[in-house]
Amino acid sequence: MSLRTDMRIVFVGDQNVGKSTLINSIISDSFQERVMHVVPEVTIPPEVTLDKVATHIIDTAADTPQHKANLELEIKRASVIVLLYAIDRLSSVVNVRSHWLPYIRELRQNVDSQNYNVVPPIILVGSKADSRGFESYPVQHEDQIDEMVNQIMLDNKEMETWVECSAKQSQNVQDVFFYAQKAVMYPQGVIYDVKAKSLTPQCKEALGRIFMLCDLDGDEVLSDDELNEFQQRCFHVMLQEDELNDIKSVVQASTESGVRNNGLTKEGFIYLHLLFVMKGRLETAWTVLRQYGYDDSLHLSSSFLAPPLPHGAPAHGNTTELSDKGLAYFRTLFNRFDKDEDKALNKDEMTRLFQTSPGIPWDKGLFPAFAITTATGNALTQHGFLALWQLTTLLDYNTTLRYLAFLGYGGEDAPAAIKVTRGRRQDQKARSISRNVFQCFVFGTQGSGKTHLLRGVLGKASDEDVKEDFAQDRCAINSVDVNHPDKWLVLREFVDEAGTLQTRDTMEQCDLAVLIYDHTNKSSLSTLINTHAILHKMDPSLPTVFVSSKPDLTPAVVQDAPRITPQAYFTQWNLVPQYSLNLRRPVSPEFYSGLLTTIIKSHNGPIAISGSGKWGRRILGGVAFLVVVGGFAFVGRFVWKQLQK
After folding, report:
1. 104 closest CA partner among 65, 75, 127
2. Which residues make beta-bridge pairs with 319?
3. Torsion 92-93-94-98 (CA) sign
4. What single DSSP character describes residue 137?
5. Contact 543, 623 (CB under 8 A)
6. In which band, very low, low, confident or very high, does the pLDDT at 329 lie, cut at 50, 70 and 90?
């Protein structure tokens, strides 16, 4: 169904060609000798039109400056233009080519540069058809006029239909109105090249994409079952076996490559729609195109790519994640393209999966280095596939909605794949958790081990090919076992080149701040203490974890306290050994479970870290202090005022 809610039918042409008379006859269904010079705009309400679209009929003239200004305005606003010439006046036909078409194009060239067809569809109407046969009719011009009109129709793709009419004899009067409406609702020029007698390249491309979405088993032919699924989606009816056979017979009779293995090929699918168009059934082709999200310019419409969520856009502070339906869809999609059934998508399978979209949505900084892949790193596992979509939905749910549309799950169904949940502050206030996806911001100086920490959550070791890059934020996501099913933990490297740390809105997205410092670097800890000071001032309720890396190396002296080593500094705060973190070894899953436990506990009041039993100290004020020094991790109290000493 068209997304259009109204249309403007604008009548233009030379003076005295019968524009006002024709409009009056359309409205009143009768002929009057004398009518107004310019008929006022007429509006037909949507409830009395076939397609439920409000229709405005506009008369024009150009005999006064005011009329000319209105003419130009209406041409720019027109949904369709009815361009009249008088059958008994050769000059009015000449002016169609020499004046009106160039004039219309000039006025419309800056109206919508994104449109495939900038000029709206044009209905060419020869008025005063009743003059044929009269003595006053210039018979010598008849063949000349017909030849000129035929050439105009061939040379100008905007020309939808040519019709002759007579208001005096009520001949084809209502047809003019019908063709004008049809040209707006089912424009021909966008999908069919009259001169070449073929579908336009844009239409072929759109239908080719639709074919790939319907080819569920990926065998490059549409079986009877796949054709019926397509038929049900577009027209809400199923075809009987003999009807399916008739379709394939018609296609095969005209194109040998149209049918293979008793199924319709892409060439046959496109040819079938060409047949519909050539038989004047434009509405059939447009019904298919619109069902798959295409607008009147053969672009995927914004409403199809970004449909509104059931309760509107997420409120400030809320988060988004995949719903059960969304996860189920992506599992099904993965299995559909996992042709070798090895529970992983290789490069070719990934290419085929995203062939109906602009391409893989994850940049090279994320995929595959920071994704859950097979041991060789050459294929994306199903768990990794779901994880990346959870991450995408958390960071930018509109990208998920767009790709759902690209991949065949668009339109009204797509919002059901997205779940809007409360954010951290709302969860803390409610003292409960409504989410399954949690985000840690990882802060740290260069070389402190952020990459190791991010890749560790994926079960990957540090890789020399993964270089520290402060020009981009990196993310990693995986499910974490904390006796809560389907919980996902995101580690996001925080790069503050633009000074966004000072923005409160930025930290709304953060559930836990992880500050990792290199205890062999004398300035690393002091830098992180300064960062924590900003975080605490901004939001004292934000849980914070300090991590010290490289415990197997000689510690440096803290820059802000030259005579105190890091170990002595943390001993001063009564820290207790808890857990070892060595950047030369894989990070234990218990470490990430501890991070997620810290987040979960922070939503229930003061944080009491439990989990594996290695975290067992009560933390006050929503701030956890984890330190890894000399092979041990420490958890202890952090008293803000004492930091100021």
Report:
1. 75
2. 421
3. positive
4. S
5. yes
6. very high
pLDDT of residue 110: 66
Q: Which residue has the tokens 């006053």?
A: 136
pLDDT in tens, 371-407: 999 988 889 999 999 999 999 999 999 999 999 999 9
Does the pTM surpass 0.70? The reply is yes
Beta pairing partners, 9: 57, 80
The DSSP bridge partners found for residue 397 are none
Residues in the chain: 645
Q: Where are the beta strands (DSSP E) in 153-255?
A: 159-164, 192-193, 198-199
- Estimate the share of the chain in helix, then strand, then coil, as percent rounded to the nearest 5: 40, 15, 45
Q: Which of 11-20, 104-113, 141-150, 594-603 has the lowest mean pLDDT?
A: 104-113
Q: Which residues pair with 193 in a beta bridge?
A: 198
Whole-number Å distance between alpha carbons of 249 and 40 = 53
- 489 beta partners: 438, 478
- What is residue 532's DSSP assignment? H
Cα gap 53→31, rounded to integer Å: 26
The first and second tokens of residue 109, run together, are: 């060239």
* Helix, coil or strand: residue 408: coil
* Predicted pLDDT of residue 430: 84
CA-to-CA separations, 622 to 318, 388, 421, 596, in angstroms, rounded: 20, 29, 22, 14
Give the residue among 180, 163, 179 at the shortest CA–CA distance from 171: 163
Nearest to 607 by CA among 633, 629, 631, 636: 636
> Over the range 406-421, which residues count as b (16 or more CB within 10 Å of their CB) and which as e?
bbbbbbeebbbbbbbb
